[in-house]
Design a protein that fits this description.
The chain is mainly alpha-helical. It has one domain: yeast vps74-n-term truncation variant domain like (yeast vps74-n-term truncation variant fold), CATH 1.10.3630.10. Helix content is 53%, strand content 5%. The protein contains 9 helices and 4 strands, in the order H-H-E-E-H-H-H-E-E-H-H-H-H. The strands form 2 sheets. The chain has a two-stranded antiparallel ribbon with strand order 1-2. A hairpin with a 2-residue loop joins strand 1 and strand 2. The longest helix is centred in the first third of the chain and has 18 residues. It is globular. The termini are far apart. The relative contact order is 0.17.
Length: 227
């Protein structure tokens, strides 16, 4: 697995570098990050979509603590649908990802909890902007280029489109709409939506299938499924 997990990339995009506060839909980001962990496990050849459920096919650790904790849950639990796993995993995941990024000095935790101790407020401004800069560079090239991005970047672009995170790319109005259309095009060409057969896709069929069912589950949960 890469040094930066897909869930971490989504979170970095969603948090303002200076204010350290999240932007966009809270539920959308949490569902997106839960899906991202599962996609990373699919990319690593650890899980697959079988008979309507997500199942562990290889329980060997990946070396990424958050992903490995999720993998252990899938291996130990009974099979569940993609939608069920998204709901099971999203709770508490953001705090774990924030803690991981803080421990690696990519962001920092600024505690602004009131003196009475009742109103807890934390901000997470960026310390090392290079990680997010790399993510944005990959996405920019995917959005403006004609070549289909690699499977990891294609999956990231697809998740961003699924949770409607275009505003985190600094886009609004017609530009955001155009970016969403391009994100959907990337998803289509990767074989994530059924528009292109998985045999024609450059993405491994096992990965494409996991991404496809997770995107459908996210869109159903958010009420944004394509007609």
């Amino acid at each position: 697995m890469g040094s930066v997990a897909l869930a971490e990339e989504l979170l970095l995009l969603a948090y303002d570098n200076e204010s350290g506060r999240a932007t966009g839909s809270t539920i959308g980001l949490d569902l997106g990050m839960a899906a991202a962990v599962l996609v990373d496990l699919a990319l690593a050849g650890r899980i697959a979509y079988v008979g309507g459920t997500l199942a562990a096919t290889n329980a060997a650790p990946t070396g990424e603590p958050i992903a490995d904790a999720v993998l252990a849950r899938l291996a130990a639990d009974s099979p569940h649908s993609p939608a069920s796993w998204l709901q099971r995993l999203r709770h508490g995941l953001r705090d774990r990802v924030l803690s991981d990024l803080c421990a690696r000095n990519i962001i920092c935790d600024v505690d602004e909890t009131m003196a009475d101790g009742f109103n807890h407020l934390h901000r997470y401004p960026t310390i090392d902007p290079s990680v997010e800069a790399d993510v944005r560079d990959r996405l920019s090239r995917a959005l403006i280029g004609d070549d289909q991005p690699d499977e990891r970047t294609a999956a990231l672009a697809t998740l961003i489109g699924a949770v409607r995170m275009e505003p985190t790319l600094g886009l609004s109005g017609p530009d955001a709409a155009a970016a969403h259309a391009q994100l959907e095009k990337i998803s289509d060409h990767a074989g994530f939506t059924g528009t292109v057969s998985m045999e024609e896709s450059s993405i491994r069929p096992s990965v494409a299938l996991v991404v496809a069912v997770l995107v459908k589950a996210i869109q159903t949960a958010l009420g944004t499924a394509r007609a």
